[in-house]
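Hi V.,

Quick status before I head out on leave. The structure for the redesign project is tokenized and pasted below; the design run finished overnight.
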């Protein structure tokens, strides 16, 4: 009987450890995916702002150059 109890306890401990490891891995993967998506979105926002600013500066320079000779 004692060996059966030991085997059951070992199996339960192994199952619990495996479940905990799987849960931790899933949580880490989800966190990494969320961080990557957030960084990607922020980079896209920065690129859009830079492009709009460059377009505005270019338009301003073009207007100044066109108006200046007259």
């Amino acid at each position: 009987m004692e060996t059966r109890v030991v085997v059951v306890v070992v199996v339960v401990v192994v199952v619990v450890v495996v479940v905990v490891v799987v849960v931790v891995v899933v949580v880490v993967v989800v966190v990494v995916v969320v961080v990557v998506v957030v960084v990607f979105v922020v980079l896209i926002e920065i690129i859009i702002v830079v492009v709009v600013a460059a377009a505005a500066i270019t338009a301003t320079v073009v207007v100044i150059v066109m108006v200046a000779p007259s």
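Above is the designed sequence. DSSP finds one helix and no strands in the chain.

G. will cover questions while I'm gone.

Best,
W.
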